[in-house]
Amino acid sequence: MADTLSNQTSCSSPNNLKGGNDQSHGTLKITSILLNHTNYLSWAKAARLFLSGRCKVGYITGRISPPPKNDSNYEVWESENDMVMAWLMNSMEPHISSLFLYKETAKEIWDTLKEMYSEQNNLTRVYQLQLDIANLTKDSKQTSLYLNKLRSLYDELAQYRPATADADIYQKRFEEDKIFKVLVGLGPDYESLRSQILMTTPLPNFNQVCQAIQREDTRRKVMNPTSKTELYEENHEKMACLARFKSSTRKTDSQNQNDESNFQRNRSRLKCTYCKKTGHRREKCWELVGKPVREKMSPSQADLVTKDDLEKFFQKFSKTNLVSSQPVGNSTEECDIPGSGNEEGDW
To answer: What number of other Cβ atoms are within 10 A of residue 136's Cβ?
Structure first.
């Protein structure tokens, strides 16, 4: 094997943890940062530092390989391998650690995690970090907290994107930044497309991303998934307007009926003190003042209002600009024109 258990004893006290014993090794969290779907790089660095400080990093790199099962050192290797596995799993969120319950070695866990999260999730995390940096503002935070948060984001970004003089890597990052800028500008209704692009391996180039967005727009126009919603909203607004109109019409009709009813009711309360009849007052009693003389008109004249009648009416109210000299039909306005029968004394 690449290394032997005897060689690892060159580390000072590899099997002893400060402030603990062998029984507590399996319940120890090697880092306060629990592994989730977005923080693999920082978690892996913290976990590796912990294991390296206790001469156990060989269990995840494969440098300490298992001896034959009939070897006297096999039980020691198995015990320490299980301890490292427990450390790793205790430092993950529960829904992630449950995926590794049936792994046999710490190296299997480490390699699986690297395969699952290191490459593709790095791009997603880089995208999120750049978005957080762009949106971070001081607001009411203390200056020290604001600067520390900004420094922390840049430090983590540097872990994903260490400094390099390689022109190819620089060009690749430049292409990624252009893609990130396009994705940031898309609205929340493009979230599925944005996730699909970020999870594509390898990441498509800038032109391919632009084409994918244009295809999505074309698909939406063809499928028109929002037409039903827009039609519903338009019809809903029209129905609401119609309902308000009908309500207003019913209210107006009801008011007219109430006004007529009130007029008749109030008129029935009038009583002449001279003739003792109802429906009029003493000052309009025909027995005292006489019955009004009304000009007799032919049926055709009674039904029409001529230009002369209109001129008299408008002159009375200082109105001019008559439009037509032709006779007009009966007006619904209450005018002082012979033939009108709305006076109180018409009883």
So the answer is: 13
Residue 74 contacts residue 68 (beta carbons within 8 Å): yes
204-216 CB burial, b ≥16 within 10 A, e <16: eebeebeeebeeb
**Separation in Å, CA 34 to CA 31, 37, 117:** 7, 10, 14
What is the pLDDT tens value at each position of the chain, 347 positions in all?
Answer: 444 444 444 454 434 333 334 444 556 777 888 888 778 888 888 999 999 999 999 999 999 989 998 988 999 999 999 999 999 999 999 999 899 988 999 999 999 998 888 765 678 888 888 999 999 998 888 999 999 999 988 988 888 888 889 999 999 999 999 999 999 999 888 999 998 998 888 889 999 999 999 999 998 888 875 555 555 566 666 666 666 666 665 555 556 566 666 666 666 667 787 787 777 777 778 777 777 766 555 555 545 556 676 666 666 654 444 444 444 444 444 444 444 444 444 44
Q: What global pTM score does this model have?
A: 0.47
What is residue 199's three-state secondary structure? Answer: coil
- The angle formed by the CA atoms of residues 310, 315 and 317, to the nearest 5 degrees, is 100
| Secondary structure, 3-state, 30-80 | CCCCCECCCCHHHHHHHHHHHHHHCCCCHHHHCCCCCCCCCCCCHHHHHHH
